[in-house]
Amino acid sequence: RRAEALARAGTLCHSADGVRIEIFANLGHRDEAAPAVARGAEGCGLLRTEFLFLERAAAPDEAEQSAEYQAIADALGERPLIVRLLDIGGDKPAPYLPIAPEENPALGLRGIRVGLARPALLDTQLRAILAVRPAGRCHIMVPMVAGLEELRAVRARVAALAAEAGLAAPFRLGIMVETPAAAMLADRFAAEADFLSIGTNDLTQYALAMDRGNAAVAGGVDGLHPAVLRLIAETCRGGARHGRWTGVCGGLASDPLAVPILLGLGVTELSAAPAMVPDIKALVTRLTLADCRAHAEAALACATAAEVRALAARFAEEMP
Ligand code: PEP
Ligand code: MG
């Protein structure tokens, strides 16, 4: 099959009209890295580091974390590795990290808010990431950002810890765009972040005010809702204004109906579930950016998610 052939060839992905689109994989464990590469992943666009922290009595120390990150970096060869800082909180509890019961965990202490409230936890993880060789190997991604202060605080810690370790290599530091606040302020974030990666799972939950884990509203939680698409468009505009790349590492990157719209909105990196990498890569090679842009314009003009999905289904049927 075409998808399998592409994966085997290990070729870098371009659209049918020659635009480079990076196809990365989301990883949640070191064992997933080599199989993802075998499926054609060109890097890791989201390493969910929670796997190291959950279901244990004490947090992993710097040496343990560093060994894990190094193993994943080595399995990826020279391919980019984007390490997301710990994203846990009220919804993903850890016994050594007591967080007072919250009425609204999704709106409480989670993502980078935990790291900033527990500086030792954040510093240990940053030291472990900075220790991966060669220096500068890992790109660092900050989850659940809502304000510039959070990015600035992390950048200051990265600079201080790198100086302490005698490292001169530049470290790439980007944010996940998962809150409407980050999407609407993308131009300001892009002035200070090296990249923007949209977490469409949370961005959808927060834009629609629908709990992504609540079965009663699950039917409505659709990243193709036109309100979410407008936030994605705003994010891409903000990134482009400062020459930063904008990617998607949420579920939409693994949704073949969403991919043409995302490219049309200006996304140039897709980080998908490893199993979906061959299909997404094969799909992108058949798309032209001109078609995607016209399609995205039409999607932005839709009134409901159902309309967008119907439009996307027609686009897929009519694809050459
Ligand atoms: C997201 O929110 O889209 C995302 C990629 O992060 P997670 O699913 O781990 O919350
Ligand atoms: Mg998220």
Automatic annotation (TrEMBL):
It comes from the Bacteria. It is found in: Cytoplasm. Belongs to the PEP-utilizing enzyme family. This is phosphoenolpyruvate--protein phosphotransferase. It comes from Sphingomonas morindae. The lineage of its organism: Bacteria, Pseudomonadati, Pseudomonadota, Alphaproteobacteria, Sphingomonadales.
